[in-house]
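WARN no homologs supplied; continuing
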Amino acid sequence: MDFQTLKYFLTIVEEDGISKAAKTLNLSQPALSHCIKRLEKELGLDLFDRSKKPMILTLAGERYSMAIRKIVKIKEEVERELTEISEKKRGSLSIGISIFRSPLIIPQYLPLFQSHFPLIEVHLEEDLALNLEKFALQGKTDITILGKPISSGFNFEPLFEEKILLACPPDHFLIPILGKRVRNLTILKDQPFLMYISRQRLRRISDSLFENAGFRPHIALETQSAENIVKLCAQGLGFAIVSESAKLYANKDNPPVFLEISDPPLFSTVVACWPRGIELSWSSKAFIDIIKAYPQKRFG
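OK structure emitted
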């Protein structure tokens, strides 16, 4: 495909005629006209209606114009990415990530990323999910790693799924009764729970589960720390609704008992998101690709 000819064609469309396009391209009008006629001959279709003054696109020309714009855009994006790869450009990547997920994800994947792209300076914005969405919309971060659901103003790329689990004190008398999967939380209505604070996504998930079960739990502790929840659960202070990745905080010698909730199991999707209308940077794409390429270490 002759991209030079395609560029000439789009310039004529944008300049509303051969005369202005020829000046923009620094070509003679006959040379530019000959080039477009040759293109039309190759396609076997008229792209312009020359009976109109100024000439206008035919239906075929309109469709062709739309397609060529997409092709040129893809070509430019690929060339830009290849240039960045070949030059190993210096740059930066700002990642928004929750306080909970940061110690679970960043130590695993950031060293891999920087081994491939050592000249990229990485900045972490660690906060609660609601604040992270605001930071993304303000342009403070390039990508944000969150659990769904996310606000409608974002594009997203799924990274992985993780189960929503019930964490149980290891020696609790109800464990033999609960079995491997909890189909009804009502059996726990008189038990204490360790809960995330109200602004966190897992708290909203927990509240929904309790509402569906028809009771309000006795809250023994509210915290934004998944590590505190897991370790205090292991010491018998209460049950908790946690994501599968929270298992990484468990003490290997005395972990909580983790049970699936509902049948089939309840899942949460973890995504990388960025505001709609914003082109995802090359470095952001590279970090996403690394997370998706190395799934084996997520939950231990």
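The first helix runs from residue 3 to 15.
OK
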